[in-house]
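Q: Joint fold for the lines below.
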Amino acid sequence: MSRGILSGIHMPWNSLGLVAVLLLLVLFFSSQSEYFFSAVTFRTLANQIPTLTVIAVGMTFVLLIAGIDLSVGSVMALCAAVMGVLITDAGWPLFAAIAASLLTGLACGAASGFVSARWAIPSFVVTLGMLEIARGGAYLVTDSQTRYLGAAVGRIGEPLAGLGVSPALLAALAVVALAQFVLQRTVFGRYMVAIGSNEEAARLSGLDTVRWKALVFALAGLFAALGGVFQLGYLQTADPNAGIGLELSAIAAVVIGGTSLSGGRGSVINTFLGVLIIAVMQTGLAQLGISEPGKRIITGAVIVAAVLFDQYREPLARSLSWRRQQKE
Amino acid sequence: MRATPSALLQTRGLDKQFAAPVLRGVDFTLNPGEIHALMGSNGAGKSTLCNIIAGIHRPSGGSLLLQGAPYRPASIRDAEAAGVRMVMQELNLFPNLSIAENLCFNHLGNRLGVINRRMLSARAREALARLKLDDLDPHQPVSTLGVGQQQLVEIARVLAQPVKLLILDEPTAALTDPQIDQLFLQLDALRQAGVGIIYISHRMSEIQRVADRVSVLRDGVMVATETARDLDIDRLLHLMAGPAMVHMPAAGGSRGPASSEPRPPPGEVALRVESFGRRGAFSDISLELHRGEVLGVGGLIGAGRTELLRALFGADLADSGCLRLPADGFTREHRFHNPREAIAAGIGLVVEDRKGQGLLLDRSISMNISLGKLPQLHNRLGVVDDAGIARQCERLCDSLEIKRDSLTQAVNQLSGGNQQKVLIARWLLQDLDIVLFDEPGRGVDARAKLRIQQLIRELAARGKAVVVVSSETEELLALSDRVIVLSNGRLAGEFDAHTVTEEELLAASFHHYVGKERGRAPVTEVSP
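A: Joint structure:
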């Protein structure tokens, strides 16, 4: 029942729920480990988060139109490889190499999106193909060798003097804010929601659904490339094996954030909260001395629990708002 | 009425009510070894009657007797246990399973669930042989068959089980002539074996060929049951249409409120349709739409009306003929490849399936209304002008009397009538020259229906060209200035809505379903 001025601001209570979960996790790990609530932990988090964040933002858009993109991990590796090789072998300046890398990602995503939308092939299959193609491309470009870039790219991940945060983190936060704005306030955002809610209705309203769907996948590719740039800055190496399984982490973050796999409903802010929850859990569990297998099992359980909660959240919310209406 | 001892099925005073009464006191008797045709125009209650007999719906009143004993099927399963089976109009086959697996679906395996292929195919061959479908390989997947063959397999599936009473709903719609002959041979064999058959069809020639008796429903009332041999088509049409009613504008009453004044001369041509066709749907449709005029499209369900509107709108592709537009002085031939092109040319379509193809159900009223207009409602950066949208939507909702809590309310919380108005508002916001309505009054309460009819007349009064497809003759005549009738995918007549009778419309509706051997006199045409 948002009315008047308040109708412009959307802070749904599931965002608050996610924030609460995040705070509880931080409290829990802080109480269990004296090292958790420390600058070291937060520096680790700040380094890890940017890549997953931007990739998950792209994935949010894709899931919003009821698609899926399995290729983002491979595309990220390919784009990072292109950038690494251009800097080490071709001696390109940093910004030109970044631009080339972003273009590569955009092209990969646009290709998947166009093929899937134009010929009505499930995006699952097309991006599965792209997953292999891009990985092959990454091996080809790097000659299957990891490239060491060293200080040339280090400043992307280094904290800025005086601010304490890296350009990568700043850029990732900017992407989150911008993407949320696009989703909420622009025509493109409305179109994504419309296509995800009822694609046929969208088409019969005159939308060029093929073009918009292709654009969404192109953006997912672009964000994968950006994630690659961030990772390169952090690790300072271009590894053709990077990002294996990253698509699943991204989907997990989006799903924890409450975006529906069947399309039409989603929020970039909530995806970011999902990324934070995953990152805090990973770091926290590691500090508690839980082994890698244990971490995986717990993370998996949390994903399922989040979706389960999400399923039953809607009827719950509806019955609540119904009761409120009865009172009015 | 007393129980006829020999009857297979008897219904007594059968009533059925959904929102409105659909069946009223229907008495119907089916004898064993009889093919009994059931006829009536759209919405007369044929399907409802059959659905009750087949256990899909329960009657609101009255009783049924099967072989003299009370018969109250609570489900399809109950009806089937009693030997009552219906072949549905939609195919109920599993396309990726083989013919044999489909035919024996309820008894696929042995007790361990293991399938014996040889036994399965033997049983399937037997069932297929009855319909002279020996040439089909039982192991072939059903998806590889044509629609007609699938229909026959569906019938074979029903006949593979013991049956006393068989209901066929338009079984020949997808069949070729030789396939129809095979089907009729089988029906004849069933008749010999004492099976009672209820046969729903629009095709007069077939009914005269196979049926023993014909019953006619009109507005849920059984108006006549006669021997098929004695019945001629004119009398049948008369029975289905009811007492002849001439719709005079002066008589007011049934006419829409906005049209009591004398009809203005038709405006300039807004769209010219030439020999328009789409394979398997409709063919050779030529017509003109005029500004300021409502063109009604009548005809039976399945005559190709929805398909025609969809092709005009570019939702489906036409494969012959063309459209001509006033924008280029009717010089160029157009065929729209997608709705976007049609909208750009000034055409909008209010779809029939508003939940499946029209609305974003879990989205807000304002989003649903503004969806098509968004390209004009944003600034240079693509940021949506929400205040502007709210203002325009609020104005439209007020003028259409859309009941709402707020514009942010999701449309699935609205009544059917208000949902329909939201869908219409989407096109009103764009102010197009031509608006096509497909069954605008379906699933809508009486008040909303009246408001929608008013609105359609207002659109015409404002100089728009409007097309309305409606299966309700009353609505069609109340709304339209001119009516065309489609029959079996072809144009079967054009009438002045003010002077045409229901019987004339019905005759045209059946025109192309009547066999070649008994061609009716050409339908009277009124030049516009």
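Q: Anything notable?
A: Chain A touches chain B through 28 residues (CB under 8 Å). The radius of gyration of chain A is 20 Å.
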